[in-house]
Structure formats: C-alpha cells, structure tokens
Amino acid sequence: MISSELTSENGHLMIGGVDSVELASKYQTPLVVYDVEEIRNQIRRFKNSFENNNLKYQVSYASKAFATIAIYQVLKQEDVHTDVVSGGELYTALKAGFPAEKISFHGNNKSEEELEMAVDNHVGVIILDNFYEIDLLEKILETKDSKIKVMLRLTPGISAHTHKYDQTGQVDSKFGFDVGSGQATKALQKVLSNKRMELIGIHAHIGSQIFGVEGFVMLVKKMFEIAADWKNNFDYVPNVINLGGGFGISYNDQDEAIRLDVFIKKIAETVKQQAKEKNMNIPEIWIEPGRSIVGPAGFSLYTIGSRKDVPGLTSYVNVDGGMGDNIRPALYQAKYEAVVANKMNDKLTQDVHISGKYCESGDILIDHQKLPDTKSGDILAVLDAGAYGYSMASNYNRNPRPAVVFAENGHDKLVVERESYEDLIKLDRNYI
Questions:
Q1: CATH code for the domain defined by 53-293
Q2: Is the bond into 30 cis (omega within 30 degrees of 0)?
Q3: Where are the domains of the chain?
Q4: Pairing state of beta strands 403-408 and 31-35?
Q5: Kindly report the CA angle at 421 between 418 and 423, in degrees rounded to 5?
Q6: Kind of pairing, strands 298-308 and 240-242?
Q7: Where do runs of H (alpha helix) occur along 105-162?
Q8: Cα separation of 395 and 77, whole Å?
Q9: What PANTHER family does the database record attribute to this sequence (predicted)?
Q10: Do domains 4-35+297-425 and 53-293 have the same CATH topology?
C-alpha cells in the first residue's frame, strides 16, 4: 500500500524522494525503480532484531531475488553476507567488489567450472546439496591443493504454507540431503572424513512467501534434533544453523505479513530453548532473506497505451511491459497492486484488467485493479515489484529488458541500462 508521504503535492508518486513521472520521462518505460533507503532500512531491521535478542547471526541476502552490481555494492555498505546460486551471480558479486569471504554458494547442480570459480576466489562457504557435488568438490580441492568451508543443505520434511513451487523443505524436493532416509547422516560422515572441507554448519530452506512463524519454529526444533543426534553419535556440533529465507511480504490486502521483529523474536526464543534442552551452545543463526529486502522497495513503471472495452465485461488496460519483465503473475498466479503514478489523488472510478504487450492471453499483470480514469500516456506503477521481476526477465517476443534506476535522498542513478534492439541480436550469427 502507498502511504501519503509517497505522494507529492501535485499528486505524483514519489520514489526515494524522486518524482516517478519524471523518472519515466527521463529513462522511458518499462522501468524498474528501487527506493534504496527502504532496502537499507529493511536490512537494518533484520540486524537490529537479532541484536535485540542477543543472538550471533548473519543476514545473507538471497541474490536470486535481484542481482546486479549496484545491489551488491549497497549490500557491501550495509555489511551483510550474500548467497549466490550460479556462476553468473558469483561473477557479478565479485565484479561489484563484494567480499568473497561473505559469499555463500548454493545450488543443486553446480558445475565443475562454477565450483572451481568458488574455490579460486575463496568464497566464504559452499552449501553442499548432493553426493555428486561432494565428490566433485573433493576432486577440485585435491587438484588445487586447497581447503574450503562447507555446509550441508538438508531436506528436513517440513512444508511451508505457500505455493507448491515455492516449497523446498519437504521430503520430495530436488534440493538437499534427505534426513529421514539417512542420506544426511551419510553426507555428514563423508564430509567429516575429508580434511580439505571444514563443515561449519547445516542449512535448510522450507519455502518462500511464508506468513506464519510456525514453520520456522518447527525447523529450529528439527535442526537441533539433528544436531543433538550428530553430537551424540559423531561428536560433531554445528557452529552455524542456517534457517534459509522465505519471509513473506504484503503484495496486496489479502497478504498478512508478520513484522520482522516478531518473526526473529520467536525464532530466537526457540533457538535458546532448544539449546538449553539439548545441552548445546547456542550456534550462530543465519537467515537468507531476498524478497523481503528488495521486494517492497521496488516499483515497475509502465506507460498505458491501448484499451479494450466490451459492454458487460471488465475492460483491459494495456501497458508497454508485462510477462517479459514480470513473469510471476503468469507463473505463480502472483497478485500485485498498482496505482496511476501521475494521478495519485484522483478517485478510483473503474475496475480493470492490467494486461501486458506480449503475445500471450495469460499476459495479465493484475487481474482486477481499481484505478482512476486513465488515458494513453498515463504512468502505471506496480507496487512491491522489487523481487523476481528483473531477475527473471526475458527477451520473449524479442522485447528488450527494462532499465533499472536506484533512487535515494532525492537523487536518481541509472544502474542497469535498457537493452537495445542491437543487444538482442549481438550473439546471433548469420547462417547464409
């Protein structure tokens, strides 16, 4: 939802102290704009919540939500970790000057080339996902006469209440070592026997866009149960328990997100209780928020073009972007809200479909949205669009991907250039 402080005197949407209508004119649309101060504030809320609960912690930004040189530079300024899931994300973070020792490398099928890049650049920790990866990393470390810190990603059998494609902690998942079947214990033994790998902890991720803290409480208890078993049987105690991410945000009125301080307080209480019951030292707790850091800070700006009105049916208001810059509504049936950035004070007079320009009937950004009267040339702003929009963007229909702008303290800066038509064909080669 938009607060009154984000509306200027002339009724325009303000982002980071900058007029969004002026941004649309200056950089053209579609355009992704981030309120950088909101990103910083959200990171600090996470950190303050942990510190208020007297826990050792690390906030590790989940790069897949949005990965560019500029965001890694902001993360570096805010002194947090980051996790990457590909060679491309790792390369971008390193090019941004992000410290390698604060990088975790995730993924369920890391290539030999990607693992070599991680080892050569001395990343902070590799999250091991399967036995193939253990063997591959073992070979690389032997060849390079190197050592590295690792964690084991576990599938603890806990399902979050979320979209089925966002659930990653349940037993039937492509991620991690299954606990119930004994795979996790076998992985533990295999890693502990390798002197080139230092096992610093265990990791699990139960899903995304989670609104209830109950799943995290269950996860903490399960992770301590595993840790206590491994302490008794293998004399191994994890220094780190990584609880993954998945903290939900409010995209619309139906989403009821829990405040971060409430989330962290409950997690901290459970960690302390479990450590006491299991007679264990309190480990360092890691979390991996991505969406909850950049999602609310991002806005997608579009220019309204054509319109389709059929008597008795909901009208279609068409914009100059769509599923190519935000696939989530088509892929996950994700629900967003939007405003007309140049008519923030106008009364809402119509209910319309917000549809994109792509040649797909499913290219509907918002199924039903109340708007004021609109005309061609108005600027539509989709709210809370900072996560998984640009990072999942494509060139479908040979449309260029949008530009990205950072706005902070009344200043704006282009941080990702808009692709050109020439960019679209630069990798093509003639056949004839």
A1: 3.20.20.10
A2: yes
A3: 4-35+297-425, 53-293
A4: parallel
A5: 70
A6: unpaired
A7: 112-120, 131-144
A8: 32
A9: DIAMINOPIMELATE DECARBOXYLASE, GROUP IV DECARBOXYLASE
A10: no
Can you tell me which residue has the tokens 């991002």?
298
Identify the CA nearest to 209 among candidates 363, 75, 81, 333. 333
Give residue 172's pLDDT. 61
At the topology level, CATH places domain 4-35+297-425 in Lyase, Ornithine Decarboxylase; Chain A, domain 1 (2.40.37)
H helix runs in 278-419, sequence order:
291-294, 328-332
- Check: CB of residue 16 under 8 Å from CB of residue 37: yes
Which residues does the annotation place in the binding site? Answer: 246, 288-291, 328, 332, 360, 388
DSSP for residue 157: S
Total residues found in the chain within this entry = 432
Active site residue 198: no
On whether the CB atoms of residues 285 and 243 are closer than 8 A, the answer is yes
pLDDT mean over 276-300 = 96
Question: Tokens 């810059």 belong to which residue?
Answer: 325
Sorted by sequence, the CB contacts under 8 Å of residue 61 that are 6+ apart come out as 43, 71, 75, 80, 81, 82, 83, 288, 289, 290, 293
pLDDT in tens, 129-174: 999 999 999 999 999 999 999 999 999 887 665 434 333 445 567 7
pTM for the full model?
0.94
**Is pLDDT of 94 > 80?**
yes
181-198 pLDDT, tens per residue?
999 999 999 999 999 999
**Shortest CA distance to 122 belongs to which of 90, 76, 78, 86?**
90
Question: Is residue 379 a contact partner of residue 340, using CB atoms and an 8 Å limit?
Answer: yes
**Binding-site residue set for substrate:** 291, 328, 332, 360, 388
Task: Please tell me the distance from the alpha carbon of residue 85 to that of residue 71, in angstroms, as a whole number.
Answer: 16
Annotated binding site for pyridoxal 5'-phosphate: 246, 288-291, 388
